[in-house]
Amino acid sequence: MAPFLIFILISFLTFLVFQLCQRLRFRLPPGPCPWPIIGNLYDIKPVKFQCFSEWSQTYGPIMSVWYGSSLNVIVCNAELAKEVLKEKDQQLADRPRDRLSAKFSRDGKDLIWADYGPHYVKVRKVCTLELFSHKRLESLRPIREDEVTAMIESIFRDITSPGKLGEGVVVKNYVSAVALNNITRLVLGKRFVNSEGVMEKQGVEFKAIVANGLRLGASLTMAEHIPWLRWMFPLEKEAMAKHSTRRDQLTKAIMEEHTLARQRTGEKQHFVDALLTLQDKYDLSDDTIIGLLWDMIIAGMDTTVISVEWAMAELIKNPRVQEKVQEELDRVIGSKRVMNEMDFPNLPYLKCVVKEAFRLHPPTPMMLPHKATAHVKVGGYDIPKGSIVQVNVWAIAHDPAVWKDPLEFRPERFIEEEIDLKGHDFRLLPFGAGRRVCPGAQLGINLVQLMLGHLLHHFHWAPPKGVKAEEIDMSGNPGVITFMRTPLEAVPTPRLPPHLYKRVAVDM
Length: 508
Prior knowledge:
This protein is of the alpha+beta class. It has helices at 2-25, 48-59, 78-87, 99-104, 118-131, 134-139, 141-160, 171-188, 201-218, 221-225, 237-265, 271-277, 279-282, 286-317, 319-332, 348-360, 393-397, 413-416, 441-458, and strands at 62-67, 70-75, 169-170, 370-371, 376-378, 381-383, 388-391, 459-462, 489-494.
């Protein structure tokens, strides 16, 4: 016991000395007083973005928050976000990697966790010019439209089966199926679930890998912030090695399938095919290709589900807005066909609804962390080299200084003023900005818009029997991404002729 107490005492004194040196040497942003060793970890509420937004009312729009001995600078207004993401972007473009992200990204050989440098610039170029180009997104449009019409057919079948008319459905279940099938088809060229809803063997393995990765990540949270105590939270090296092997084996098997298929039938447009055909041109290692494929899967799957579910909840709570979207859809598309992405330019109010949903409920409310590669000043305060900087996207989107009635779901605000979604206006940052803006932003916007358009064109949506619209639980779960705490249940009523509820299947 005595050695442990000595260790704790030494850690305590080291922390105090470190804190004193930091405060004497630098003019750090204000913030809550940290505890020895654990910093502010004990004080942070589970829903961090709301906690930091509340703290900003006391400490101001830029704060020092200590995660153990790590300084995290939290930025909560648009002006400072612009300074971080544009004016001081180069000095703040690296990523901090914990032990898990370091393992899974092979020390940043992917895109999301790569430090800013030649590798990042190269991989970013591949994504911008090759993977998410307008030409490739357009070539893969039939897949998106196929999966969204499959969702509509599934909802219609379920609610029109005997005894089901007028009953509620859990919206997330249907939206999740679209997100899973869409992202695996776009990225891997695989639809793991057949038309009967049965998942094939590779699909079962895929879902197990995703679930296991989340479990491993959750097991390390506290240990990553207190280096002196990491010996008490050793890495599950065997479990992580097994997870990496499973992920790599599945991905390489799919890569080999695509290589053989291309030899037989020629070039394909799926992301895995694109990366394999570009491997020599851009000197991409297998680790980088695997990392990029999984970056796109993880980044594109849950965020779409979150955005659509929150938007549907707001539309059910605001029937005026729902009716206005449906009037636009009926006027532009009518009742003799279904909508497609070519209709987007003629649906300005639907676009505004999507923007308002991204504003009120950004899928990643705290932007992924940036790391200072040099000493830099933000808002007049010192940000020492190695510090972590995070932008509170949610706080900015709810700031009454830049948004009139920020808590109100009012899409008309985007008719009154044109505001960009893809990082050019720092009041609205669902996809980030600057060097690390999400390269797949347009794909995400298209899919959310397509899903919402179909859901609203095909069905009228109302709360379940006995539930008032104002009683819908609008609280979110804690985490890097923010699902609704209570999955949305709603009653869909068909609005179109029965023959328009069929899946428009495409074999790609």
